[in-house]
Amino acid sequence: MDDAPKGPKPLSTDARAIMEGLNAEAGHLSIWLRTQANAPAQKPWFRDAGVDGAGQLSAGRVGAGQMKAVPHHWKWREIYPYLEKIGRVASEADVPPVEFADRQQFLLTNPGLGGRLQVASSIRCAVSIYNPGDLAKAHLHSPNASRTILSENGGYTNVDGERCEASRGDLILTPNGTWHDHGNDGTTPVVWIDTLDWPLMEFLDIIWLDEDFPAKAGNARVQETTHPPGYSRSLYGHGGLRPTFQSHQRGIGQNVSPFFQYRGKDVREALAAMRGAAGDPHEGVTLEFVNPVSGGPVFPTLTHGAQLLRAGEETLLKRETSSMVYVCLEGRGQTEVAGKTWDWEENDIFVVPNFLWRRHVNRGAKDAVLYSMSDRPLLEKIGQYRAQGMADGKVTQIVA
Question: Do 194 and 146 form a contact (C-beta atoms < 8 A)?
Fold first, then answer.
């Protein structure tokens, strides 16, 4: 008599092959399901006042060897099914993706960059899913990274011994050189966007990753929580007030924010409080996530922001030398990029590469909220940030 337990059989241990099969299916959406662990060619963009594009490559051998990011729109309703498929593989396979790829995610690939794992010249973005009980072991790396939480249950990230419980709209930082682990101890899946300056570090050949966390009893999968909940918030969560009794250094990185978790609830309240302001004619009502010690961007290479587009609001055209990645957290609207129009809604992601004219339009009856990620701090540090606006066909210089 066969007493073997009955029930559904797990997937083959070769979950990697399943993921590769999904990649073949999803390639046209400019995403890649992760299956592995980790010269003057530019024409003078500022001389072209047209709105149908700028920053084209020059002709000849030098120009032909350079690739350029193009504007692109990832519709959530098209890419989310693949996130569900990753989650299904993770829950049914006896060896889930997090075991052989360190992540359960797909990366966004810019169609203009020949399959490179980046959305813009210096920015990488991925969308991750963690089922209840999933865990990414403790590690640290040279790139700066952040998590923008899209699900109501945001799971947790433990950064430098500080456990950050997250929810939708939160921004959680894992600065370079900080040990961090993350996972989902809730009852529903967790979804977030990972944003990193990985392409820049890769170009400079300074990518490194350490997974040998120095635990008391040898290497461990997770950190011990050494700070009380809300530790960095207790120190830096009061605007205009900075503690002076201790070092602001967290981890081994430099010039990064010691404040790890920016609450989506606080962001929305701040935007609502400014709703009656005139705002920026090119951006609407905007705010920037800042390092509370220096007042500068959260990372030396990347800045994060949020903007409110009020019902009926239309911004003026703007272009800049930095690249922008947007995600819609609330509402719906349109963005015109280089003469093309995208209609976006909640969780949609889109990229506006450098030099291209853009403007946002909210013709709906409700407000919309966009979060943004930009490499402007990097361009500012090397003296290459410039921005222009356009109104009634006239181009003006925007002074930061």
Answer: yes
